[in-house]
Amino acid sequence: MAWSVVMAWHLDLHGPDSAYSGLGVSFSRLEILRIVLARTEVSSSTVMAEMGMTRNGVTRHLEALRNAGLISERRTTHPRGSGPITYWRADRGDVWDAVDELGQYLLGPR
């Protein structure tokens, strides 16, 4: 395969015309999922800090990921007793299943 053809297959994940944007997928949502996958559990506050987003913005993305079955939440009392805190986690197997289902939908069975 010619190098120019190989380069054409490279997916730009960051630009407004990226492959994911073309499918209507939010890059912020993908980044949040990546952050959750990188840890056993992560608080909403940690996601906010890493993303540089407001609580409302992060919550909207986390809830969408939860509703899609990609992450789950655990609500508890803050370790310092200062109120409630929500921790998020993702099961890598569930995420791989979703990616595989998308691939099969788009490309057909392997």
The dominant shape is globular
Structural class: alpha+beta
CATH architecture: Orthogonal Bundle
Q: How many strand units?
A: 3
Task: Characterize the largest beta sheet: strand count, sense, and whether it forms a barrel.
Answer: 3 strands, antiparallel
Spatial separation of the terminal alpha carbons: 22 Å
Protein name: ArsR family transcriptional regulator
InterPro entries: ArsR-like_HTH, WH-like_DNA-bd_sf, WH_DNA-bd_sf
Organism: Subtercola vilae
Pfam family, one: HTH_20
Question: What attributes does this structure have?
Answer:
three-stranded antiparallel β-sheet, alpha+beta, 53% helix, single chain, Arc Repressor Mutant, subunit A, disordered N terminus, 110 residues
Description:
With 110 residues, the protein is an alpha+beta fold. It has a single domain, classed as Arc Repressor Mutant, subunit A. Helices cover 53% and strands 15% of the residues. The protein is built from six helices and three strands, in the order H-H-H-E-H-H-E-E-H. Strand 2 and strand 3 form a beta hairpin. Helix 3 (27-37) packs across helix 5 (55-67). The longest helix has 16 residues, at 92-107. The two termini are 22 Å apart. Mean pLDDT is 84; it is low at 1-9. This is ArsR family transcriptional regulator. InterPro entries: ArsR-like_HTH, WH-like_DNA-bd_sf, WH_DNA-bd_sf.
Summarize the structure.
The protein is built from 6 helices and 3 strands. It is an alpha+beta fold.
